Each structure stands twice: as structure tokens, then as C-alpha cells.
Amino acid sequence: MQSDVAWSRLRELILDGTYPPGARLTETDVAAALEMSRTPVREALRALTADGLVRPAGRGVVVVALEASALEDAYQVRAALEALTAELAATRQGEGRIAPADLVSLRDVADATADATARGRMAEAVGLNRRFHRRIAELAGNAVALHTLERVWDQIQVSTLRSLAPPSRPAHVSSQHEQLLAAIIEARPQDAAAIARAHVLDTRAVTHSKDGFT
């Protein structure tokens, strides 16, 4: 559907900072930018409002950044859900329900993330980092958790985009990814959950000091 296309394209423009927090968007302006009619754009803006990425403002919407307390809440929810999905992925691995090719794919993303992080390629590193965590959520096999995480990830990404910088300890970030990957491959659910939770909370602390990425 055209509204889905409009939603996807506009969401990406918000997530990559083309439309930063505080930017005001109108149906007319967005329709012109996307070269689409106003009807699918109107539906896309409604969906993005429900997603928490924009809020109504006059005849348009404004891109939203979470306030400090709400951002803290978002990280707590993310930590809990990523602990759950890591635990579920490790459990499914122990039950033989994850294909070896999927684990190879997860390994490849972890390696690519580590390389981009070490080289300070922030835009690439952010995208790969999210792909790594999303892949774990997909392997967990819980659609509700994945859908909720997508919304939380989006809100955190928009809210922290301006403060992103190469991590001061890229080896630490990569080490946590390696530990998480190992816990899943070796089917250690409790360890996977603990590592995932600690990783998110470390990220929260680093992001608050404006020295890392989400």
C-alpha cells in the first residue's frame, strides 16, 4: 500500500536525522518531498504519531525527542525486552530450533559491527548495531517482543542521534556482543539474558555521557 511506503520512507528520514527532533512536517511538504499524494502521507503521519516519533502541532506534526525521564524509561523497557529475546534465542538454540545459517548470519553482523565501530564509521555502526540486536529478537521467535522493541529502538535512536559519537571503548562494546553471541550459540539462556541486560544498561550510561551509540 502507498501509505506503508510513505510510512517507511518518512520513518527512515526521521531515523537518519534528515528530519531531526523539533522539525515541523506538513502533509503538503512531505508529499512534495516523497513525490506522493497527500492521502498516503496523511495515513503515514497518523501511524508515526501512534509510534511516538511525531506529535500533532497545528496543521502538521513535529518530530519528537524523548525527555530525559522518558528516555530512561525507554532504556529500562529495552533492557528487559532484550534480556527476554536473548534468553528465548538461547533456549531455542538449545532445542535445535535455530538453523546454523542463522547463527552464521548473526556472527557476520557482529563482525561487521565491530569493524565499523573500531573505524569510527558511526552511521554504518549504528545501523549494523541495530541489525545485530534485531536479528537476536527475530531468532527469539516472539513477534510481540520484536514489534515492541522496534518502537522503543526508534524512539531511542531519534532521541540520542544528536549526541552520538564513536564509543570511547569500542573493544568493550564488541566484547559484549561476542559474549552475547557465545551465550546464544552455547544455549545458555540465563547468561544470555544477563549479558543483554547489562549491555543495554551500559549503553544507557554511556549515551547519558554523550560518548557512545545506541
Automatic annotation (TrEMBL):
Keywords: DNA-binding, Transcription, Transcription regulation. It holds the Pfam family GntR. Residues 1-66 form the HTH gntR-type domain. It comes from the Bacteria. Gene3D superfamilies: GntR ligand-binding domain-like, Winged helix-like DNA-binding domain superfamily/Winged helix DNA-binding domain. This is GntR family transcriptional regulator. It comes from Nonomuraea spiralis. The lineage of its organism: Bacteria, Bacillati, Actinomycetota, Actinomycetes, Streptosporangiales.
